[in-house]
Design brief:
Strand content: 5-15%
Largest sheet: 6 strands, mixed
Number of helices: 18
Radius of gyration: 32 Å
Helix content: 55-70%
Mean pLDDT: 86
Low-confidence stretches: none
Number of domains: 4
Number of strands: 12
Order of helices and strands: HHHHHHHHHHHHHHEEHHEEEEEEHEHEEE
Distance between the termini: 97 Å
Length: about 600
Protein backbone atom coordinates (compact mmCIF):
# COMPACT_ATOMS: atom_id res chain seq x y z
CA UNK A 1 0.00 0.00 0.00
CA UNK A 2 1.19 3.49 -0.87
CA UNK A 3 0.72 4.99 2.59
CA UNK A 4 2.75 2.20 4.18
CA UNK A 5 5.56 2.82 1.68
CA UNK A 6 5.44 6.58 2.36
CA UNK A 7 5.53 5.99 6.11
CA UNK A 8 8.48 3.64 5.67
CA UNK A 9 10.27 6.24 3.51
CA UNK A 10 9.70 8.91 6.16
CA UNK A 11 11.02 6.68 8.93
CA UNK A 12 14.02 5.80 6.77
CA UNK A 13 14.56 9.51 6.15
CA UNK A 14 14.55 10.19 9.90
CA UNK A 15 17.08 7.45 10.62
CA UNK A 16 19.25 8.70 7.74
CA UNK A 17 19.07 12.23 9.17
CA UNK A 18 20.22 10.94 12.58
CA UNK A 19 23.19 9.23 10.93
CA UNK A 20 23.92 12.27 8.79
CA UNK A 21 23.64 14.76 11.68
CA UNK A 22 24.67 12.78 14.80
CA UNK A 23 25.97 15.77 16.75
CA UNK A 24 22.86 17.78 15.95
CA UNK A 25 20.72 14.90 17.17
CA UNK A 26 22.71 14.72 20.41
CA UNK A 27 22.37 18.47 21.04
CA UNK A 28 18.64 18.43 20.33
CA UNK A 29 18.15 15.43 22.62
CA UNK A 30 20.07 17.24 25.38
CA UNK A 31 17.96 20.39 24.81
CA UNK A 32 14.76 18.34 25.10
CA UNK A 33 15.97 16.76 28.36
CA UNK A 34 16.89 20.17 29.81
CA UNK A 35 13.55 21.62 28.75
CA UNK A 36 11.73 18.66 30.32
CA UNK A 37 13.53 19.31 33.60
CA UNK A 38 12.46 22.97 33.57
CA UNK A 39 8.87 21.94 32.79
CA UNK A 40 8.80 19.64 35.82
CA UNK A 41 10.43 22.30 38.01
CA UNK A 42 7.99 24.93 36.68
CA UNK A 43 10.90 27.36 36.55
CA UNK A 44 13.47 28.42 33.96
CA UNK A 45 16.40 27.00 35.90
CA UNK A 46 18.57 25.62 33.10
CA UNK A 47 17.77 28.10 30.33
CA UNK A 48 21.45 28.84 29.68
CA UNK A 49 22.08 25.15 29.00
CA UNK A 50 19.02 24.98 26.74
CA UNK A 51 20.25 27.95 24.71
CA UNK A 52 23.74 26.46 24.54
CA UNK A 53 22.48 23.14 23.17
CA UNK A 54 20.36 24.94 20.55
CA UNK A 55 23.42 26.91 19.42
CA UNK A 56 25.36 23.63 19.27
CA UNK A 57 22.63 22.05 17.15
CA UNK A 58 22.72 24.91 14.64
CA UNK A 59 26.51 24.94 14.50
CA UNK A 60 26.68 21.18 13.99
CA UNK A 61 24.29 21.02 11.02
CA UNK A 62 26.07 23.96 9.35
CA UNK A 63 29.47 22.34 9.80
CA UNK A 64 28.03 19.06 8.44
CA UNK A 65 27.03 20.71 5.15
CA UNK A 66 30.43 22.44 5.08
CA UNK A 67 32.02 18.98 5.31
CA UNK A 68 29.75 17.58 2.59
CA UNK A 69 30.47 20.47 0.22
CA UNK A 70 34.24 20.82 0.61
CA UNK A 71 35.66 17.67 2.22
CA UNK A 72 35.49 13.91 1.91
CA UNK A 73 37.80 12.43 4.58
CA UNK A 74 36.17 11.04 7.72
CA UNK A 75 38.98 12.47 9.85
CA UNK A 76 38.05 15.97 8.67
CA UNK A 77 34.49 15.35 9.76
CA UNK A 78 35.69 14.43 13.25
CA UNK A 79 37.82 17.58 13.39
CA UNK A 80 34.84 19.73 12.40
CA UNK A 81 32.69 18.04 15.05
CA UNK A 82 35.36 18.77 17.63
CA UNK A 83 35.42 22.40 16.51
CA UNK A 84 31.64 22.57 16.97
CA UNK A 85 32.00 21.23 20.51
CA UNK A 86 34.66 23.86 21.29
CA UNK A 87 32.58 26.72 19.87
CA UNK A 88 29.52 25.54 21.81
CA UNK A 89 31.54 25.36 25.04
CA UNK A 90 32.91 28.84 24.31
CA UNK A 91 29.39 30.19 23.88
CA UNK A 92 28.39 28.72 27.24
CA UNK A 93 31.41 30.25 28.96
CA UNK A 94 30.43 33.66 27.58
CA UNK A 95 26.78 33.59 28.68
CA UNK A 96 27.54 31.89 32.01
CA UNK A 97 29.28 35.08 33.18
CA UNK A 98 25.94 36.92 33.18
CA UNK A 99 23.80 36.62 36.34
CA UNK A 100 20.80 35.93 34.13
CA UNK A 101 19.89 35.93 30.47
CA UNK A 102 19.47 39.51 29.31
CA UNK A 103 17.70 40.85 26.25
CA UNK A 104 21.11 41.53 24.72
CA UNK A 105 22.18 37.88 25.02
CA UNK A 106 18.87 36.66 23.63
CA UNK A 107 18.97 39.00 20.62
CA UNK A 108 22.62 38.26 19.86
CA UNK A 109 21.87 34.55 19.98
CA UNK A 110 18.75 34.88 17.81
CA UNK A 111 20.68 36.83 15.15
CA UNK A 112 23.52 34.29 15.23
CA UNK A 113 21.08 31.38 14.83
CA UNK A 114 19.39 33.16 11.92
CA UNK A 115 22.77 33.67 10.22
CA UNK A 116 23.60 29.98 10.74
CA UNK A 117 20.28 28.98 9.17
CA UNK A 118 21.03 31.12 6.09
CA UNK A 119 24.52 29.58 5.96
CA UNK A 120 22.94 26.10 6.10
CA UNK A 121 20.93 26.97 2.98
CA UNK A 122 23.76 28.74 1.13
CA UNK A 123 26.88 26.66 1.85
CA UNK A 124 25.80 23.47 -0.02
CA UNK A 125 25.48 25.39 -3.31
CA UNK A 126 28.62 27.53 -3.18
CA UNK A 127 30.21 27.27 -6.65
CA UNK A 128 27.75 24.54 -7.53
CA UNK A 129 25.65 23.73 -10.57
CA UNK A 130 22.64 23.95 -8.28
CA UNK A 131 21.46 27.50 -7.64
CA UNK A 132 20.79 29.10 -4.28
CA UNK A 133 17.18 29.52 -5.40
CA UNK A 134 16.71 25.74 -5.50
CA UNK A 135 18.34 25.30 -2.10
CA UNK A 136 16.13 28.02 -0.63
CA UNK A 137 12.99 26.48 -2.13
CA UNK A 138 13.92 23.09 -0.65
CA UNK A 139 14.52 24.61 2.78
CA UNK A 140 11.31 26.67 2.56
CA UNK A 141 9.18 23.64 1.69
CA UNK A 142 10.93 21.47 4.29
CA UNK A 143 10.37 24.03 7.02
CA UNK A 144 6.69 24.38 6.12
CA UNK A 145 6.19 20.60 5.98
CA UNK A 146 7.97 19.98 9.29
CA UNK A 147 5.94 22.67 11.06
CA UNK A 148 2.69 21.44 9.51
CA UNK A 149 3.21 17.78 10.43
CA UNK A 150 4.53 18.69 13.87
CA UNK A 151 1.46 20.81 14.49
CA UNK A 152 -0.84 17.98 13.38
CA UNK A 153 0.98 15.46 15.58
CA UNK A 154 0.89 17.76 18.60
CA UNK A 155 -2.81 18.51 18.08
CA UNK A 156 -3.61 14.80 17.75
CA UNK A 157 -1.69 13.78 20.86
CA UNK A 158 -3.21 16.68 22.81
CA UNK A 159 -6.73 15.55 21.86
CA UNK A 160 -5.92 11.99 22.96
CA UNK A 161 -4.49 13.20 26.28
CA UNK A 162 -7.51 15.42 26.85
CA UNK A 163 -9.87 12.51 26.14
CA UNK A 164 -8.00 10.24 28.58
CA UNK A 165 -8.02 13.02 31.18
CA UNK A 166 -11.78 13.49 30.93
CA UNK A 167 -12.94 9.91 30.36
CA UNK A 168 -10.48 7.53 32.02
CA UNK A 169 -8.11 9.05 34.59
CA UNK A 170 -6.57 12.41 35.46
CA UNK A 171 -3.41 13.36 33.58
CA UNK A 172 -0.91 15.81 35.01
CA UNK A 173 -1.13 19.16 33.22
CA UNK A 174 2.61 19.02 32.43
CA UNK A 175 1.86 16.25 29.91
CA UNK A 176 0.94 18.90 27.33
CA UNK A 177 4.16 20.98 27.56
CA UNK A 178 6.16 17.71 27.63
CA UNK A 179 4.43 16.68 24.42
CA UNK A 180 5.18 20.06 22.82
CA UNK A 181 8.80 19.70 23.96
CA UNK A 182 9.26 16.32 22.27
CA UNK A 183 7.41 17.31 19.09
CA UNK A 184 8.82 20.79 18.49
CA UNK A 185 12.30 20.58 20.05
CA UNK A 186 13.21 17.07 18.92
CA UNK A 187 10.94 15.77 16.16
CA UNK A 188 10.35 18.95 14.11
CA UNK A 189 14.05 19.86 13.55
CA UNK A 190 15.00 16.25 12.76
CA UNK A 191 12.10 15.91 10.33
CA UNK A 192 13.18 19.19 8.70
CA UNK A 193 16.74 17.86 8.30
CA UNK A 194 15.44 14.58 6.91
CA UNK A 195 13.87 16.50 4.01
CA UNK A 196 17.15 18.23 3.07
CA UNK A 197 18.95 16.21 0.37
CA UNK A 198 22.70 15.65 0.19
CA UNK A 199 24.02 18.17 -2.33
CA UNK A 200 26.92 17.51 -4.73
CA UNK A 201 30.23 18.05 -2.99
CA UNK A 202 33.86 17.06 -2.78
CA UNK A 203 32.90 13.38 -2.53
CA UNK A 204 31.42 13.49 -6.05
CA UNK A 205 34.79 12.59 -7.54
CA UNK A 206 34.53 9.16 -5.96
CA UNK A 207 30.78 8.75 -6.46
CA UNK A 208 29.47 6.51 -9.20
CA UNK A 209 27.96 8.25 -12.20
CA UNK A 210 24.59 6.58 -11.67
CA UNK A 211 24.49 7.72 -8.05
CA UNK A 212 25.36 11.28 -9.06
CA UNK A 213 22.52 11.35 -11.60
CA UNK A 214 20.12 9.93 -9.03
CA UNK A 215 21.29 12.56 -6.52
CA UNK A 216 20.65 15.46 -8.91
CA UNK A 217 17.23 14.06 -9.83
CA UNK A 218 16.35 13.94 -6.14
CA UNK A 219 17.43 17.55 -5.66
CA UNK A 220 15.44 18.69 -8.71
CA UNK A 221 12.38 16.88 -7.41
CA UNK A 222 12.81 18.36 -3.92
CA UNK A 223 13.22 21.87 -5.38
CA UNK A 224 10.12 21.62 -7.57
CA UNK A 225 7.68 24.47 -6.95
CA UNK A 226 4.19 23.00 -6.37
CA UNK A 227 1.39 24.38 -8.52
CA UNK A 228 -0.37 25.70 -5.42
CA UNK A 229 2.72 27.68 -4.35
CA UNK A 230 3.27 28.95 -7.90
CA UNK A 231 -0.30 30.28 -8.04
CA UNK A 232 0.03 31.77 -4.55
CA UNK A 233 3.22 33.62 -5.46
CA UNK A 234 2.39 34.65 -9.01
CA UNK A 235 -1.29 35.56 -8.84
CA UNK A 236 -1.84 36.53 -5.21
CA UNK A 237 1.35 37.70 -3.47
CA UNK A 238 2.86 39.59 -6.41
CA UNK A 239 -0.33 41.58 -7.20
CA UNK A 240 -0.79 42.38 -3.48
CA UNK A 241 2.81 43.60 -3.24
CA UNK A 242 2.26 45.71 -6.36
CA UNK A 243 -0.81 47.39 -4.85
CA UNK A 244 0.98 47.96 -1.54
CA UNK A 245 3.99 49.41 -3.37
CA UNK A 246 1.72 51.85 -5.21
CA UNK A 247 0.21 52.98 -1.89
CA UNK A 248 3.69 53.47 -0.39
CA UNK A 249 4.89 55.48 -3.37
CA UNK A 250 1.80 57.73 -3.26
CA UNK A 251 2.24 58.25 0.50
CA UNK A 252 5.92 59.13 0.13
CA UNK A 253 5.25 61.58 -2.71
CA UNK A 254 2.45 63.29 -0.73
CA UNK A 255 4.40 63.53 2.54
CA UNK A 256 8.02 63.77 1.45
CA UNK A 257 8.02 67.43 2.42
CA UNK A 258 7.01 66.83 6.03
CA UNK A 259 5.22 63.97 7.77
CA UNK A 260 7.21 61.14 6.18
CA UNK A 261 10.42 62.15 7.94
CA UNK A 262 8.70 62.13 11.35
CA UNK A 263 6.53 59.02 10.98
CA UNK A 264 8.51 56.32 12.77
CA UNK A 265 5.47 54.03 12.65
CA UNK A 266 6.37 53.36 9.02
CA UNK A 267 9.66 51.73 10.02
CA UNK A 268 8.29 48.26 10.87
CA UNK A 269 5.96 48.45 7.86
CA UNK A 270 8.79 49.20 5.45
CA UNK A 271 11.10 46.60 7.01
CA UNK A 272 8.33 44.02 6.56
CA UNK A 273 7.84 45.23 2.99
CA UNK A 274 11.55 44.84 2.18
CA UNK A 275 11.67 41.35 3.72
CA UNK A 276 8.60 40.31 1.74
CA UNK A 277 9.97 41.63 -1.57
CA UNK A 278 13.31 39.84 -1.15
CA UNK A 279 11.68 36.60 0.03
CA UNK A 280 9.13 36.54 -2.81
CA UNK A 281 11.90 37.43 -5.32
CA UNK A 282 13.89 34.34 -4.31
CA UNK A 283 10.83 32.07 -4.33
CA UNK A 284 9.80 33.45 -7.74
CA UNK A 285 13.26 32.94 -9.23
CA UNK A 286 12.41 29.43 -10.47
CA UNK A 287 8.97 30.41 -11.80
CA UNK A 288 8.69 31.30 -15.46
CA UNK A 289 5.47 33.21 -16.10
CA UNK A 290 4.75 36.84 -16.97
CA UNK A 291 3.95 37.87 -13.40
CA UNK A 292 7.11 36.35 -11.95
CA UNK A 293 9.34 37.72 -14.72
CA UNK A 294 7.80 41.20 -14.35
CA UNK A 295 8.29 41.08 -10.58
CA UNK A 296 11.97 40.10 -10.90
CA UNK A 297 12.64 42.91 -13.38
CA UNK A 298 10.83 45.80 -11.69
CA UNK A 299 10.57 45.34 -7.94
CA UNK A 300 14.26 45.25 -6.94
CA UNK A 301 14.59 48.64 -8.63
CA UNK A 302 11.54 49.98 -6.79
CA UNK A 303 12.81 48.60 -3.48
CA UNK A 304 16.00 50.68 -3.52
CA UNK A 305 14.52 54.24 -3.46
CA UNK A 306 11.79 53.28 -0.97
CA UNK A 307 14.34 51.83 1.44
CA UNK A 308 16.71 54.77 0.96
CA UNK A 309 13.94 57.16 1.98
CA UNK A 310 13.33 55.14 5.14
CA UNK A 311 17.05 54.97 5.98
CA UNK A 312 17.24 58.74 5.72
CA UNK A 313 14.15 59.16 7.93
CA UNK A 314 15.55 56.78 10.56
CA UNK A 315 18.92 58.51 10.61
CA UNK A 316 17.29 61.94 11.03
CA UNK A 317 15.35 60.65 14.06
CA UNK A 318 18.59 59.61 15.78
CA UNK A 319 19.29 63.22 16.72
CA UNK A 320 16.27 63.17 19.03
CA UNK A 321 16.26 59.59 20.32
CA UNK A 322 19.85 58.40 20.00
CA UNK A 323 20.67 54.91 18.74
CA UNK A 324 18.80 51.93 20.18
CA UNK A 325 19.39 48.35 19.11
CA UNK A 326 16.03 48.31 17.30
CA UNK A 327 16.81 51.48 15.37
CA UNK A 328 20.29 50.09 14.61
CA UNK A 329 18.77 46.97 13.07
CA UNK A 330 16.23 49.02 11.10
CA UNK A 331 19.00 51.13 9.55
CA UNK A 332 21.35 48.16 9.03
CA UNK A 333 18.64 46.11 7.36
CA UNK A 334 17.70 49.13 5.25
CA UNK A 335 21.30 49.34 4.00
CA UNK A 336 21.26 45.60 3.31
CA UNK A 337 17.92 45.81 1.47
CA UNK A 338 19.15 48.73 -0.67
CA UNK A 339 22.36 46.85 -1.54
CA UNK A 340 20.43 43.64 -2.23
CA UNK A 341 17.92 45.48 -4.41
CA UNK A 342 20.75 47.05 -6.40
CA UNK A 343 22.46 43.70 -6.94
CA UNK A 344 19.24 41.89 -7.86
CA UNK A 345 18.58 44.58 -10.48
CA UNK A 346 21.70 43.63 -12.44
CA UNK A 347 22.95 40.12 -11.58
CA UNK A 348 21.46 36.98 -13.09
CA UNK A 349 18.90 34.98 -11.14
CA UNK A 350 21.37 32.11 -10.64
CA UNK A 351 23.67 34.35 -8.60
CA UNK A 352 21.17 35.15 -5.85
CA UNK A 353 23.46 33.40 -3.38
CA UNK A 354 25.37 36.67 -3.15
CA UNK A 355 22.56 38.25 -1.12
CA UNK A 356 22.66 35.27 1.28
CA UNK A 357 26.38 35.81 1.83
CA UNK A 358 25.72 39.54 2.36
CA UNK A 359 23.03 38.75 4.92
CA UNK A 360 25.42 36.55 6.90
CA UNK A 361 28.04 39.31 6.88
CA UNK A 362 25.54 41.97 7.99
CA UNK A 363 24.29 39.71 10.78
CA UNK A 364 27.85 39.11 11.98
CA UNK A 365 28.56 42.85 11.96
CA UNK A 366 25.51 43.48 14.14
CA UNK A 367 26.63 41.14 16.94
CA UNK A 368 30.44 41.38 16.92
CA UNK A 369 31.98 44.34 18.86
CA UNK A 370 32.90 47.13 18.53
CA UNK A 371 30.39 48.07 15.80
CA UNK A 372 27.60 45.78 16.97
CA UNK A 373 24.08 46.96 17.77
CA UNK A 374 24.53 46.81 21.53
CA UNK A 375 27.91 48.50 21.94
CA UNK A 376 26.80 51.38 19.74
CA UNK A 377 23.34 51.70 21.31
CA UNK A 378 24.76 51.63 24.85
CA UNK A 379 27.34 54.30 24.03
CA UNK A 380 24.75 56.42 22.21
CA UNK A 381 22.16 56.31 25.01
CA UNK A 382 24.71 57.07 27.74
CA UNK A 383 26.04 60.01 25.71
CA UNK A 384 22.50 61.25 25.02
CA UNK A 385 21.62 61.12 28.72
CA UNK A 386 24.87 62.77 29.74
CA UNK A 387 24.49 65.54 27.16
CA UNK A 388 20.97 66.43 28.34
CA UNK A 389 22.01 66.37 32.01
CA UNK A 390 25.02 68.61 31.36
CA UNK A 391 22.93 70.97 29.25
CA UNK A 392 20.58 71.48 32.21
CA UNK A 393 23.38 71.66 34.82
CA UNK A 394 22.18 68.41 36.38
CA UNK A 395 25.54 66.63 36.38
CA UNK A 396 28.34 67.91 38.62
CA UNK A 397 31.28 65.98 40.03
CA UNK A 398 29.83 62.71 38.71
CA UNK A 399 26.63 63.25 40.69
CA UNK A 400 23.15 64.00 39.41
CA UNK A 401 21.39 67.12 40.73
CA UNK A 402 17.57 66.97 40.59
CA UNK A 403 15.98 69.67 38.45
CA UNK A 404 12.24 69.80 37.77
CA UNK A 405 12.34 73.00 35.69
CA UNK A 406 13.74 71.53 32.46
CA UNK A 407 11.80 71.40 29.20
CA UNK A 408 9.36 68.63 28.33
CA UNK A 409 11.61 67.62 25.42
CA UNK A 410 14.56 67.11 27.77
CA UNK A 411 12.38 65.24 30.27
CA UNK A 412 11.35 62.92 27.46
CA UNK A 413 14.98 62.38 26.39
CA UNK A 414 16.07 61.61 29.96
CA UNK A 415 13.12 59.27 30.55
CA UNK A 416 13.66 57.35 27.31
CA UNK A 417 17.41 56.99 27.86
CA UNK A 418 17.11 55.95 31.51
CA UNK A 419 14.45 53.34 30.87
CA UNK A 420 16.30 51.96 27.84
CA UNK A 421 19.55 51.65 29.81
CA UNK A 422 17.64 50.01 32.67
CA UNK A 423 15.82 47.59 30.35
CA UNK A 424 19.12 46.53 28.75
CA UNK A 425 20.82 46.25 32.18
CA UNK A 426 23.37 48.96 31.36
CA UNK A 427 22.42 51.39 34.13
CA UNK A 428 24.71 49.77 36.70
CA UNK A 429 27.69 50.41 34.44
CA UNK A 430 27.21 54.20 34.61
CA UNK A 431 29.38 55.65 37.35
CA UNK A 432 27.28 58.76 37.96
CA UNK A 433 24.08 56.78 38.56
CA UNK A 434 23.60 55.42 42.12
CA UNK A 435 24.74 51.79 42.50
CA UNK A 436 21.30 50.68 43.67
CA UNK A 437 19.41 52.83 41.17
CA UNK A 438 16.04 51.42 40.09
CA UNK A 439 14.25 53.56 37.52
CA UNK A 440 10.79 52.57 38.66
CA UNK A 441 11.40 53.55 42.30
CA UNK A 442 14.19 56.12 42.23
CA UNK A 443 13.45 58.20 39.14
CA UNK A 444 11.79 61.15 40.91
CA UNK A 445 14.34 61.36 43.75
CA UNK A 446 17.22 61.15 41.29
CA UNK A 447 16.09 63.60 38.59
CA UNK A 448 13.56 65.77 40.44
CA UNK A 449 10.59 65.04 38.17
CA UNK A 450 8.33 62.14 37.31
CA UNK A 451 8.85 60.08 34.19
CA UNK A 452 7.73 61.77 31.00
CA UNK A 453 4.44 60.35 29.73
CA UNK A 454 3.40 60.64 26.11
CA UNK A 455 0.05 62.46 25.81
CA UNK A 456 -2.68 59.96 25.17
CA UNK A 457 -5.52 60.23 22.69
CA UNK A 458 -8.33 62.41 23.93
CA UNK A 459 -10.80 59.54 24.35
CA UNK A 460 -8.43 56.95 25.79
CA UNK A 461 -9.44 56.07 29.37
CA UNK A 462 -6.99 56.14 32.27
CA UNK A 463 -6.92 53.37 34.87
CA UNK A 464 -4.19 53.66 37.49
CA UNK A 465 -3.60 51.91 40.82
CA UNK A 466 -1.20 52.42 43.71
CA UNK A 467 1.63 49.90 43.49
CA UNK A 468 1.23 46.96 45.83
CA UNK A 469 3.06 47.04 49.17
CA UNK A 470 3.87 50.74 48.69
CA UNK A 471 4.79 52.18 52.13
CA UNK A 472 2.80 55.28 53.17
CA UNK A 473 4.19 57.65 55.80
CA UNK A 474 1.53 58.21 58.52
CA UNK A 475 3.76 59.96 61.03
CA UNK A 476 2.20 63.08 62.58
CA UNK A 477 -1.37 62.53 61.44
CA UNK A 478 -4.26 62.20 63.90
CA UNK A 479 -6.50 59.93 61.85
CA UNK A 480 -7.20 58.61 58.36
CA UNK A 481 -10.24 57.48 56.43
CA UNK A 482 -10.90 55.75 53.09
CA UNK A 483 -13.22 57.62 50.70
CA UNK A 484 -14.77 56.94 47.29
CA UNK A 485 -15.24 59.88 44.90
CA UNK A 486 -17.92 59.59 42.21
CA UNK A 487 -18.96 62.40 39.89
CA UNK A 488 -22.62 61.33 40.02
CA UNK A 489 -22.89 61.83 43.79
CA UNK A 490 -25.78 64.25 44.49
CA UNK A 491 -25.50 64.94 48.23
CA UNK A 492 -24.03 68.22 49.43
CA UNK A 493 -21.97 68.80 52.52
CA UNK A 494 -22.07 65.13 53.38
CA UNK A 495 -20.26 64.29 56.60
CA UNK A 496 -17.59 61.68 56.12
CA UNK A 497 -16.38 61.32 59.68
CA UNK A 498 -16.05 63.16 62.98
CA UNK A 499 -12.64 63.78 64.52
CA UNK A 500 -12.07 64.63 68.19
CA UNK A 501 -8.87 66.20 69.52
CA UNK A 502 -8.11 68.03 72.76
CA UNK A 503 -11.79 68.03 73.70
CA UNK A 504 -12.83 69.66 70.44
CA UNK A 505 -14.80 68.10 67.62
CA UNK A 506 -14.13 68.51 63.90
CA UNK A 507 -15.93 67.29 60.80
CA UNK A 508 -14.49 66.07 57.51
CA UNK A 509 -17.06 67.00 54.86
CA UNK A 510 -17.52 66.09 51.21
CA UNK A 511 -18.96 68.99 49.26
CA UNK A 512 -20.28 67.80 45.87
CA UNK A 513 -20.27 70.74 43.52
CA UNK A 514 -21.45 70.54 39.91
CA UNK A 515 -18.03 70.00 38.42
CA UNK A 516 -15.97 68.52 41.24
CA UNK A 517 -15.85 67.28 44.82
CA UNK A 518 -14.22 69.35 47.57
CA UNK A 519 -13.00 67.86 50.84
CA UNK A 520 -13.39 70.32 53.72
CA UNK A 521 -12.27 70.04 57.34
CA UNK A 522 -14.38 72.30 59.59
CA UNK A 523 -14.36 73.09 63.33
CA UNK A 524 -17.18 73.21 65.87
CA UNK A 525 -18.24 76.67 64.69
CA UNK A 526 -18.34 75.52 61.04
CA UNK A 527 -15.13 77.45 60.37
CA UNK A 528 -13.19 75.85 57.51
CA UNK A 529 -9.69 74.80 58.56
CA UNK A 530 -8.46 73.36 55.26
CA UNK A 531 -9.84 72.04 51.95
CA UNK A 532 -8.81 70.01 48.94
CA UNK A 533 -10.27 70.07 45.42
CA UNK A 534 -10.35 66.55 43.99
CA UNK A 535 -10.01 67.88 40.44
CA UNK A 536 -6.28 68.13 41.18
CA UNK A 537 -6.15 64.33 41.10
CA UNK A 538 -7.75 64.06 37.67
CA UNK A 539 -5.75 66.96 36.24
CA UNK A 540 -2.51 65.26 37.25
CA UNK A 541 -3.35 61.84 35.84
CA UNK A 542 -5.39 62.90 32.81
CA UNK A 543 -2.56 62.39 30.30
CA UNK A 544 -1.13 59.24 31.84
CA UNK A 545 -0.96 56.27 29.49
CA UNK A 546 -2.46 53.26 31.30
CA UNK A 547 -1.06 50.89 28.68
CA UNK A 548 2.47 52.09 29.38
CA UNK A 549 2.05 52.48 33.11
CA UNK A 550 -0.77 50.88 35.06
CA UNK A 551 0.57 51.57 38.55
CA UNK A 552 1.78 54.69 40.36
CA UNK A 553 4.23 55.08 43.21
CA UNK A 554 3.30 56.38 46.67
CA UNK A 555 5.02 59.68 45.83
CA UNK A 556 2.97 60.09 42.64
CA UNK A 557 -0.22 59.14 44.47
CA UNK A 558 0.17 61.63 47.35
CA UNK A 559 -1.32 65.15 47.41
CA UNK A 560 -0.64 67.36 50.44
CA UNK A 561 -2.33 70.55 51.70
CA UNK A 562 -1.13 72.40 54.81
CA UNK A 563 -1.66 75.69 56.63
CA UNK A 564 -1.20 76.94 60.20
CA UNK A 565 -4.44 75.25 61.35
CA UNK A 566 -4.32 71.77 59.80
CA UNK A 567 -2.63 69.42 57.36
CA UNK A 568 -4.32 67.04 54.94
CA UNK A 569 -2.73 64.30 52.79
CA UNK A 570 -4.66 62.45 50.09
CA UNK A 571 -3.16 59.15 48.87
CA UNK A 572 -4.80 57.75 45.73
CA UNK A 573 -5.41 54.00 45.75
CA UNK A 574 -6.87 53.89 42.26
CA UNK A 575 -8.24 56.41 39.81
CA UNK A 576 -10.43 55.99 36.72
CA UNK A 577 -10.89 58.69 34.11
CA UNK A 578 -13.33 58.03 31.28
CA UNK A 579 -13.14 60.43 28.32
CA UNK A 580 -15.99 60.97 25.88
CA UNK A 581 -15.27 63.80 23.46
CA UNK A 582 -15.49 66.95 25.57
CA UNK A 583 -16.96 65.24 28.64
CA UNK A 584 -15.12 63.50 31.44
CA UNK A 585 -16.33 61.00 34.05
CA UNK A 586 -14.05 60.48 37.01
CA UNK A 587 -13.92 58.37 40.12
CA UNK A 588 -11.25 57.56 42.63
CA UNK A 589 -10.64 55.62 45.84
CA UNK A 590 -8.35 57.47 48.27
CA UNK A 591 -6.96 57.52 51.79
CA UNK A 592 -7.33 60.87 53.56
CA UNK A 593 -4.90 61.61 56.43
CA UNK A 594 -5.72 64.53 58.74
CA UNK A 595 -3.60 66.40 61.29
CA UNK A 596 -5.15 69.15 63.40
CA UNK A 597 -2.62 71.61 64.78
Amino acid sequence: MKWIKKLKDRLTGLTDAIARFPLTTAFLLAAAVINAYDINAEKEILTKYLLTFLVGAFLSFVFQVVYERFFSKFSTRLILMGLVALLTAGYYLIISQAPKLSMEIEIRTAVALFALLIAFIWVPVIKSDISFNKSFMIAFKSLFNSLFFSGVIFAGISIILQAINQLIFTIDYTAFPHTANIVFVLFAPMYFLSLIPVYPGAADDITKKEEAIHQKEGITKAAYCPKFLEILISYILIPLIAVFTLILVIYIIKNVGGEFWKDNLLEPMLVSYAITVILVYILASEIENKFAIFFRKIFPKLLVPIVLFQITSSILSLEETGVTHTRYYVILFGIYAAAAGSLLSFISVRKNGIIAAMLIVFAAVSIVPPVDAFTISRTSQINTLQTVLEKNNMLENNKIKPNASISEKDKKSITNAVYYLTMMQYAKKIEWLPDDFEAYKDFYNTFGFYEYQEPVKSNQPVFLSLEQSAPINIKGYDTFVQIDFYMNDKNKDESICEIEKDGKKYNLLRDNNKDQIILRLVGENEQELISFKTQEIYDKFYNYNSQMKGVITAEEATFTKENNRAKMAIVVQNVNIEKFNDQQYNNALVFVFVEIK
